[in-house]
Design a protein that fits this description.
The strands form 2 sheets. A 4-stranded parallel sheet has the order 2-1-3-4, sandwiched between helices. It is of the alpha/beta class and 313 residues long. It is built from 15 helices and 7 strands.
């Protein structure tokens, strides 16, 4: 099916982020309206990261809205050369958010690769759409947005290893993320780790597996293995967290939103902070066998790989 047998296929989460947001009581922090972008990775696989993002923005005093309509930035499509389909997805996003965009509502995301689309590629895909240009100026990575708003974060003592996602580095950098973590009271080491090697679906493909692992083993993975149990491993990208989890490091990386959530509950890091009870998701697969859920994820990942082969040939 185009997926390396050495890879573990991520399982779908249920309920999704959008479903969880729809079920939770509405909370108005008293501040201005902010859209949290429910990207496909966060919505379908790691909804707990999205909820942590919502809670962080609410703690900062904002009225957080999560669009319920199925919207996608379209990155996997144009990454594999499907520019026409990608443009259609982009048009759908801008059309649905047009009133919010014109009202100046910020769009804040927790997945760097998706926010990077809005910051960079969107205005090129929709070159003559003024609202696409507006959105590119109103889209923010979570830490970047909180930095511009001079957010006073909760305090947390301890050490953290910070790995930056490639798209995050390319669209503003991760200096605001490091500054936010340090403002919390953490001793932060920013790794000179380059790309984690996963790069979306690329690292799942058999032909790329060895290069993918070599990229991770250059700096990132050895440093994670060496880190004491009390040290946080922070990585915002879904791909980066997946690479860390799938390479026998014994650790799971946290998104900065989850670090903020942890700080709201305690002021000092426990051993293996990613295992803290307040961060644990309680997924339910609605009665479906886990094998069927995994099979669905395999089909999703395989689709990109098959599309890539079709384009190459």
């Amino acid at each position: 099916m185009g997926v390396s047998l050495k890879r573990e296929i991520p399982e779908f989460a249920s309920p999704t982020l959008k479903e969880r947001v729809a079920r939770r009581p509405a909370r108005n922090g008293g501040g201005r309206r902010v859209i949290l972008w429910a990207d496909t990775f966060t919505n379908s696989f790691h909804p707990e990261v999205g909820i942590a993002g919502v809670e962080a923005l609410e703690h900062a005093g904002y009225h957080v809205v999560v669009p319920q309509l199925h919207l996608c930035c379209g990155r996997p499509l144009y990454d594999y050369g499907m520019l026409g389909l990608a443009r259609g997805y982009a048009e759908r996003v801008v059309s649905h958010l047009r009133d919010e965009i014109r009202a100046g509502v910020p769009v804040v995301g927790v997945e760097p690769s998706c926010i990077a689309v809005f910051k960079d590629e969107l205005s090129k895909l929709l070159a003559f759409d003024e609202d696409a240009v507006r959105l590119s100026k109103q889209a923010f990575h979570l830490s970047e947005f909180l930095a511009t708003e001079d957010y006073d974060p909760p305090k947390l003592r301890g050490k953290a290893l910070l790995h930056g996602h490639c798209h995050h580095r390319a669209t503003g950098g991760i200096s605001s993320e490091k500054a936010l973590l340090e403002k919390m009271g953490l001793d932060v080491e920013e790794l000179d780790s380059g790309c984690c090697g996963m790069a979306g679906g690329w690292g799942y493909e058999p032909d790329h597996y060895n290069v993918s692992i070599a990229c991770g083993e250059r700096v990132l993975l050895p440093r994670v293995r060496e880190a004491p149990p009390e040290t946080l491993v922070v990585a915002d990208g879904f791909s980066c967290r997946s690479q860390i989890e799938q390479t026998q490091t014994g650790r799971e990386a946290l998104h900065v939103a989850q670090v903020l959530k942890l700080a709201l509950e305690r002021d000092e890091l426990p051993p293996y902070p990613e295992r803290a009870p307040e961060l644990q998701a309680t997924p339910s697969h609605n009665g479906l066998p886990r094998s069927l859920v995994a099979a669905g994820a395999i089909a999703l990942a395989a689709g990109a790989a098959v599309a890539a082969r079709a384009i190459r040939t």
